[in-house]
Design a protein that fits this description.
Number of domains: 2
Order of helices and strands: HHHHEEHHHHHHEEEH
CATH architecture of the largest domain: 2-Layer Sandwich
InterPro entries: MLTR_LBD
Oligomer: single chain
Radius of gyration: 20 Å
Organism: Paenibacillus silagei
Number of helices: 11
Helix content: 40-55%
Protein name: MmyB-like transcription regulator ligand binding domain-containing protein
Number of strands: 5
Length: about 230
């Protein structure tokens, strides 16, 4: 295609996002190729397509499982937790026993008493940041009815969600260490490592790495207790 050669050469070409998306579909471009096409044509990256369900590959699940003492999960573009490891369940409860709606991270933040307890004094800052993230994604994907339906549902079950929403705060990710709470073990300290999966930018991988301050040993005990209870 002459126009693609022109793009590669850096010539100015006016083309809409809709046209680029159709071209991506026709050419069956993968995520990396689609991002490259957008960057060539518009000097920007495409919006995340939240309509297409994301899947966790066996390799990704094995990666999560290998993080033995680090509670880890994978979220999709709707902030649904779609994969996790045993350490994450030991900290937050058996996710396999939860409904799909209960595994939404925003929903869990505002409706799970256990999650609120685990977050402790950091819960409000976490909740405000999550609402800000939800707010930004809702604004970008207003044509997707899922966002308005989720907003209405959250507004009904949590006055705090609506309060934080109405504040219109925009908060950056918290880089400070995370402190989580367990009833029998007290406080555990973690560093959060979070990144987008290269092959699917809809997926966010989050890993809580325990500090070498006794938190590693506490995670070992937490896992032992969790396995004994199952």
């Amino acid at each position: 295609m002459d126009w693609y050669t022109y793009l590669e050469q850096g010539r100015p070409i006016n083309v809409s996002a809709e046209v680029l998306d159709r071209i991506s579909e026709v050419l069956r471009l993968d995520e990396a190729e689609r991002r490259h096409l957008y960057h060539l044509a518009r000097k920007q990256f495409p919006l995340i397509n939240t309509h297409q369900p994301s899947k966790v590959t066996a390799e990704l699940q094995r990666f999560l499982d290998s993080q033995t003492l680090s509670p880890s999960n994978i979220m999709d573009a709707h902030m649904n937790i779609i994969a996790w490891n045993e350490a994450y369940c030991a900290m937050n409860g058996d996710l396999a026993a939860m409904s799909e709606s209960e595994r939404n991270f925003v929903w869990m933040t505002f409706t799970s008493a256990r999650f609120r307890y685990v977050k402790g004094e950091q819960w409000e800052m976490h909740a405000r940041r999550i609402v800000a993230t939800f707010h930004a994604r809702y604004a970008r994907h207003g044509e997707d009815p899922w966002w308005s339906e989720q907003f209405e549902a959250l507004s009904k079950v949590s006055s705090e969600f609506r309060e934080f929403w109405d504040s219109h705060e925009i908060l950056d990710a918290i880089d400070a260490p995370k402190t989580l709470h367990c009833p029998n073990l007290g406080k555990l300290n973690f560093d959060l490592v979070s990144f987008q999966y290269l092959n699917d930018s809809n997926l966010t991988v989050s890993i809580h790495v325990p500090h070498q301050d006794g938190s590693v040993e506490k995670m070992q005990q937490l896992l032992t207790d969790y396995r004994d209870q199952r």
